Amino acid sequence: MNVLILNSGSSSLKFQVIATDLDRIKQHKDDRLCKGEVERIGGEAIVTLQVGKQPRQKFTAPLRDISAALDFIVRHIVSDQSGIAEIQGAADIHAVGHRVVHGGERFTESAIITDDVLQGIEDCIDLAPLHNPNNIKGIQAARELFGKALPQVAVFDTAFHHSLSEMAYLYAVPYHLYRRHRIRRYGFHGTSHRYVAYRYRALRRLSREQTHVITLHLGNGCSAAAIRGGASVDTSMGMTPLEGLVMGTRSGDVDPAIVNLIAIKEGLSAQEVETLLNTQSGLLGISGLSNDMRILQSELKEHDDRRVRLAIDVFCYRARKYIGAFLACMGGADAVVFTGGIGENSPAIRAGICEGLQWAGLQLDDKHNQETNAREGKISTDDSRLQAYVIPTDEELLIARDTVRCILGEPHPS
Ligand code: ADP
């Protein structure tokens, strides 16, 4: 089955086509036929496409909305020009899997998109006003293009964290606010945490029940998850993706009282302060230079800039603090797993986070840490009580597999 995977944002559309079915899943023989992205939708859009392992192609085209962007990429993928032997026409795309950010309390697992499910995703717009509307546009664009008969599946960023207990997901605010407005921790990046926990247990040949890990997804957005018995028992992101770790432009945890304080002192509305915490804070806010860890690290190397060092130190310290907290909450873990652009590629940040965690039994193996980048591997010493791993994430693969399993009515275990 050739599954088109879509991740639609406000001005971008990421896509992949993965060929998979139940046998291929079992044998790990899924095949990524192509991947790419449309950026700057709404103007002269930039389209990148990589077919198999061939070099990337780049085009520009005026694409006014997600629908036009999807039409453009599908037309190209199915044309002879693309060189994808498995896809000769639109009929060779057998299903569409969508990344959907918020599934609220209703969606505890991936779901085939019916009118009722689409309504359910719309009902979650209040919870994710910046994300769900774009995901819905992607779903509607695919329906228009392929017709309603082509199966589409929604895979939710929140679903993996549905196993959090009330104790872990409730904020200590008046309970009626939870009842009335569903104000609680939901958590995000669930597909990524779920995927790396699954790969960890595959690498170590463990059952789901034996899987006790802390996963750190460190990309532009960053989050930690405490996974006990293969299930998420706590996570750092909250009602929205703003809570928790320090991120590229997001503050992560702050004292909620500073929102009003900043509003008064800076003459901003509450909404403007929230935007500031989401877009002007984190690594960018402290360093005053960039939200991009690569840029910060090279700046530090060349100029030893104090604020850049501080930004990186606060980033590592916060992540370490969450590891400690989650070890306490989950009664210990067997490993810490690093993923996301920073987690997969930066030995210095991994070392910075693990510094001083010897008390918990975690000792990095310097050589393995330096050498394990963009691939799976253990980076702690053999005798570490708490192991550390690098496992590159692959949310699209999980979306493709869930799509196939949902359509065939197979269980899709988290
Ligand atoms: P997203 O969350 O948007 O998917 P990524 O997972 O690609 O983002 O992560 C982006 C982050 O990863 C950026 O801060 C980038 O600088 C960082 N990153 C990527 N490669 C490296 C590297 N080799 N060293 C340090 N940081 C890196």
Characterize the structure shown.
The protein has 2 domains: 2-156, 2-Layer Sandwich (Nucleotidyltransferase, domain 5), CATH 3.30.420.40; 206-390, ATPase, nucleotide binding domain (Nucleotidyltransferase, domain 5, 2-Layer Sandwich), CATH 3.30.420. It is built from 16 helices and 14 strands. The chain has helices at residues 22-27, 66-78, 115-123, 132-146, 166-169, 175-181, 190-203, 257-266, 270-279, 282-287, 293-303, 306-329, 340-345, 347-354, 366-371, 395-407, and strands at 2-8, 13-19, 31-39, 44-51, 57-62, 95-100, 111-112, 152-156, 213-218, 222-228, 231-235, 335-339, 377-378, 387-390. The strands form 2 sheets. The chain has an 8-stranded mixed β-sheet, sandwiched between helices. Strand 4 and strand 5 (57-62) form a beta hairpin. The longest helix has 24 residues, at 306-329. The protein is globular. The two termini are 21 Å apart. The model has no long low-confidence stretch (mean pLDDT 96). Bound molecules: adenosine-5'-diphosphate. The site of adenosine-5'-diphosphate has 13 residues, from helix 11 and helix 13.
List the helices and strands and how they pair.
Layout: E1 2-8, E2 13-19, H1 22-27, E3 31-39, E4 44-51, E5 57-62, H2 66-78, E6 95-100, E7 111-112, H3 115-123, H4 132-146, E8 152-156, H5 166-169, H6 175-181, H7 190-203, E9 213-218, E10 222-228, E11 231-235, H8 257-266, H9 270-279, H10 282-287, H11 293-303, H12 306-329, E12 335-339, H13 340-345, H14 347-354, H15 366-371, E13 377-378, E14 387-390, H16 395-407
Parallel strand pairs: 1-6, 6-8, 9-12, 12-14
Antiparallel strand pairs: 1-2, 2-3, 3-4, 4-5, 7-8, 9-10, 10-11, 13-14
Helix pairs in contact: 2-4, 8-9, 11-12, 12-14
The structure holds adenosine-5'-diphosphate.
